[in-house]
Amino acid sequence: MTSVVSAHPPAEVVVDHGPRLLASIGDTMKLATHRELWSDPRLSRVATGQLIEWARAVGIAGRGGAGFPFATKLAAAVKAAGLVRRPVIVVNAAEGEPASAKDFALALTVPHRVLDGAAATAYSLRCNEIHVVVPRDRPLVGEALRAAIAERRDAGERLSWKVTETGPGFVAGQARAVIEALSGRPGLPTTAWQPEAVSGLRGRPTLLSNAETWAQVGALVTLGPEAYAGLGADAEPGTTLLSLSGLPGLAPGTVRVVEVPYGTQWSEVLGDAVSRPVLVGGFHGTWAPGGALASMRVSRVAMGAMGAMGLTLGAGVAVLLPDGECPVAVTAAITAYLASESAGRCGPCFNGLPVLAAEVSALAGCDVGASYTRIRDLLGLVERRGACAHPDGTARLVRSMVTVFEDEVVAHLGGVCRIAEDGLRARIGEGMATGLAGVGVRAGVGAEPRAEACGEARAETGVGRP
Ligand code: SF4
Question: Taking the model in full, what pTM does it have?
Answer without folding.
Answer: 0.87
